[in-house]
Structure formats: C-alpha cells, structure tokens
Amino acid sequence: MAEVVLGVCGGIAAYKACELLRLFTESGHSVRVVPTASALKFVGAPTWAALSGKPVATEVWDDVHEVPHVRIGRSADLVVVAPATADILARAAHGLADDLLTNTLLTATCPVVFAPAMHTEMWENPATQANVATLRSRGAIVIEPAVGRLTGADTGRGRLPDPASIFSTALHVLSRRVPDLAGRHVVVTAGGTREPLDPVRFLGNRSSGKQGYALASSAVARGARVTLVAANVTLPVPAGVDLVTVGTTEELRKATVSAAADSDVVVMAAAPADFRPASVAEKKIKKSDDGGEPVLELITNPDIAAELGAAKRPGQLLVAFAAETHDALENARGKLARKRADLIVVNEVGTDLVFGADDNTVTILGADGTTITLGKLPKADVADAIWDEVVLRLASRFGHDGTPQDRTSGP
Fold first, then answer.
1. Which of 286-295, 349-358, 395-404 has the lowest mean pLDDT?
2. 205 and 149 in one domain?
3. Calpha distance 305→256 (Å, rounded)
4. Which domain holds residue 37?
5. Is residue 290 part of a domain?
6. What is the count of structural domains for the chain?
C-alpha cells in the first residue's frame, strides 16, 4: 500500500478527481487530498474527507503543530495533481509556496505526476509550455492533456485525461519510482497500415497496436513526452500522449519523419504494409462475368525505419521491429544492419501468434552485439524491458552536461 497525495486544483474537471480518488482507495492505497482554495469552490472539503477518510486542509496554518507543509510531502510515495491548472504549473515551476499544495510539491522527494486540464489557448501559451518544460527537466511527469470537449461549447486540447488512464499511469510510476525518460521526447508508432485497392477494400495486416500502445504508456510513466503515431488502432488512447492518427504507409512515413525531427528516440512498433497497389480503382472492383482472374499490380512501399536510420542525429536512437514467420534471428540481424537501428525487437508472428494477444515473446538485438531473450510476458512488461535497454544507451551517449557525444552506432 502506497501513501499517495492527490492535489486538486480549481478547474471544472475537479469533479473527475473524485473518481481518481476512488480508484486509489479501492485498490488499497492511502490517499491524502490536498486541494487548493479554488478547488473547494468546485468540490467541497466534506466530499474529499468522506471519500479519502482523512482530514482536508488547504493552508499551511491548519494543524500547524503537525507541520503539514513538510510532513505530507516527505511521507508521500507519489504525488498526483489532477486537474493541474496553468496556475499550479507556473507556481510549481518557479518554486512558489503560498499554500499547502505548493509546499507539499516543494518538499516531496517522491515521483510527481501532473495531469493538466485547461483551455487550449492556455495550454499552448508559450509561458505554460516553458513551465511544463522546466518541470519535466527536473524529473516531474507532466502528461499531455486529451483532446475533446472543454468548458462550454469549446473543443480542443486541454481536456483532463480519463481518470482510469491517469490511475494506470500512476500505478506504473509507483512501480518504477525513477522517471528515467524525463526530459526526453520519444516517438512510438503502432498498429498496421492499410493500402486501398478500391473504395471498399484494402491490403493490410493483423497488427492490433497493443505493443506500441504499451510502449507509449510505459514511456509516459517514465517521464517522457510521447508522440504516438497510430495506424488503424481501435484501443483506448493512453493518457498523456500526443496522438497522431494515420491510415496508409505513406501517411505513417510523413507523420513519423516529422515527429522524429526533434525526438531523442523513435520506436517503430507499427507494422507498415510492405506493398501497395500501383493504382487505386475509383469504383468497387467487380467479379468478371466470364470468370476471368483479376490482376493486381503491386509496388514496394518506402522503408520508413531505414529512412530514419540514415537520417539519425548524434545521440538519437532508433528501435526497429522485425515480425518474422521463419529464420527470425537471421532475418532480424540483416534488418538491424540495413536500417542502421540501435536495437531491433524480434518476434515470430502468424496465426495465433502475437497479433491481438496481450502477451509477447521477443528477442532484443543490439547493434553493439547484445542479445536479450525474453520469455512470454505481458506486453506492458516487454515495453519496460525495451525502454530499459533504451535508457542504458541514452546514458552512454550523453555526457555529464547532457550534450550528445560524437559517436555513431552500427554493427
């Protein structure tokens, strides 16, 4: 059982924190709610006290003999601020301490997770973005807000992620304790591309996107800013990611190359179609009346991972995936070299293998000659194992001042 501090700020989404509190308490965690004075205008102190079973205070002057402004932060295993307003992000970034929550943030030595919620213009304002960058650089986890309905009729980025998603991220943070991807921008691709044949048919594959989504969720919990490029995935969007949806391989290529421009790591977990039709019929292709066989001409799609590998910046890492039906390791080693990847994740695929399953069996090959074989594991655990290898390589490529070292990778 963990000691969790739930900070609640004065935004309309404060009512959703009640559900987040319930998820923590029902899973056995001890939760102390620390609202701001503004938060109590949306949800009153009796509600928080009743749901948490603990007293609620907003000021350092309440119960002074217990020194709450120091004790609460010191004893916490995790601090989650949800919703986190633009105001609290600014005050936390600048080290202000004018109420119990900001004092708790200054004294906490445990992981801190901010779940922002505000209007789009406030989130995108350069001041807010600078404050977010500052917090992330210090190891705080600031998850990206969701896109959706805001206060009134407004729609855009700034909506509080679903409480269940925030809770899932928080549990992952508790299990890791160290935000070892803090300050990093990672790009993860997921799903399978589809190449149109006509208005109703396409060439595609069975990729569900589960492994890519697990990688994205894990990266958020480890402190990264995550761009998730998803091709035809129907899974719930992980809390805290910047989602880009695509359909075809060319769309995947454009989105990934664009996102990779300022990234530290690119993980190509998606399954792009290797081929596409040379032309797309404007109308549905009909069966021939004389029973003749249709002829389909295919052309090769671009190799996105190879393009990214050739364009890697000093210090940037590329993780490729190799889904193989036979000679898996031999084929993967060839791909590792051709794509100039730093790591390649190998798994055998086929009917009843990997696609759509919740677990995976993989081997991770490194350009430095390392080989790591993982037994059958949940895809979330596989994701963590991949990030563990990435973190080791990031550490070896950056100097003590955080600047990239002038070294290249390759077999």
1. 395-404
2. no
3. 10
4. 3-176
5. no
6. 2
Asked if 258 and 266 count as a contact pair (C-beta separation under 8 A), the reply is no
CB neighbours of residue 334 within 10 Å: 13
In tens, the pLDDT along 364-409 reads: 999 999 999 998 899 999 999 999 999 999 988 754 444 444 333 3
403 inside domain: no
C-alpha span between 340 and 337 (Å, rounded): 5
Q: Which residue has the tokens 């009153």?
A: 44
Residue 274 annotated as part of some ligand binding site: yes
Do the annotations mark residue 275 as ligand-binding? no
C-alpha span between 292 and 288 (Å, rounded): 6
pTM for the full model? 0.81
Work out the average pLDDT over 38-50: 94
172 and 189: one domain? Answer: no
Catalytic residues: 205
Give the pair of three-digit tokens for residue 32.
């102390």
Give the bridge partners for 242, in sequence order. Answer: 227
317 within a domain of the structure (yes/no): yes
> Alpha-carbon distance 3 to 183, whole Å?
26
Residue type, 9: C
Q: HEC string of the chain?
A: CCEEEEEECCCHHHHHHHHHHHHHHHCCCEEEEEECCCHHHCCCHHHHHHHHCCCCCCCCCCCHHHCHHHHHHHHCCEEEEEEECHHHHHHHHCCCCCCHHHHHHHHCCCCEEEEECCCHHHHHCHHHHHHHHHHHHCCCEECECEEEECCCCCEEEEECCCHHHHHHHHHHHHHHCCCCCCCCEEEEEEEECCEECCCCCEECCCCCCHHHHHHHHHHHHCCCEEEEEEECCCCCCCCEEEEEEECCHHHHHHHHHHHHCCCCEEEECCECCCEEECCCCCCCCCCCCCCCCCCCCEEECCCHHHHHHHCCCCCCEEEEEEEECCCHHHHHHHHHHHCCCCEEEEEECECCECCCCCEECCEEEECCCCEEECCCEEHHHHHHHHHHHHHHHHHHHECCCCCECCCCCCC
Please check if 312 is assigned to a binding site: no
Does residue 218 lie within any of the structural domains?
A: yes
